[in-house]
TrEMBL record:
Residues 107-149 form the HNH nuclease domain. This is HNH nuclease domain-containing protein. It holds the Pfam family HNH_3. It comes from the Bacteria. InterPro entries: His-Me_finger_sf, HNH_nuc.
Length: 212
């Protein structure tokens, strides 16, 4: 039902939830972190737009850093294990696919968008709601901030983000989200940015951001 409950509708229930966890911070970071240059992605990855498959390309020895092992040996081992196989395709609990590129974790659909368009998207929407369906026809770039601005925000909201408010008694920033008539409390935070991050992570988890 979302945040905009109708007047005189079903009575709300409340559920307390712990503050943003390390895993949720990680998911939020992956959804917002800068992506590698398009040229690097084209060097490392190939993409099948009709199936959504992201594939590791064979890597030359020059791609590997100097170490106690010869670069050509490292390249042979890596290519034998990964080249031609799925890239960044580990499933997350929330349904998205992710993986590491140069020891940095990224969401697969965001990497695909940058690979094809050269643009760092604010948010990628899976049109059919299936989060591991990364066919190009199922992806579109949308604005998270614009999506939030399009929702009704109370006139006394000081945070500018729905579901985030200042608790006068403690001076802490609180976050919550309503899902199917249940208000889930996302904890108190010293910094407004942490409360906003908790709210955005919950929106991603419950599919709010990927829907209009």
């Amino acid at each position: 039902m979302g945040d905009s409950a109708m007047k005189n509708g079903p009575r709300r229930r409340y559920q307390r939830r712990a503050a943003l966890t390390t895993n949720e911070h990680g998911a939020f970071d992956m959804a917002t972190k800068p992506l590698p240059p398009q040229d690097l992605l084209r060097n490392r990855l190939s993409y099948e737009a009709d199936t959504g498959a992201l594939i590791w390309r064979e890597r030359p020895a020059s791609n590997f850093p100097a170490s106690r092992y010869p670069k050509d040996r490292l390249a042979k081992i890596w290519n034998g294990k990964f080249a031609g196989g799925p890239a960044l395709a580990s499933p997350m609990a929330n349904g998205y696919l992710h993986g590491a590129l140069d020891s940095v974790d990224y969401l697969q659909h965001r990497i695909i968008w940058k690979l094809i368009t050269g643009v760092d998207p604010e948010h990628i929407d899976h049109i059919n709601g299936v989060r591991d369906d990364n066919r190009l026809c199922n992806l579109r770039s949308v604005s998270v901030s614009g999506n939030m601005r399009n929702r009704r925000i109370s006139s006394n909201n000081q945070s500018g983000v729905i579901g985030v408010y200042l608790e006068k008694k403690t001076g802490l920033w609180c976050a919550s989200i309503e899902v199917d008539g249940v208000v889930i409390y996302l904890g108190r935070h010293v910094h407004i940015a942490d409360a906003q991050a908790a709210r955005v992570a919950a929106e991603i988890e419950h599919g709010f951001i990927s829907r209009y």
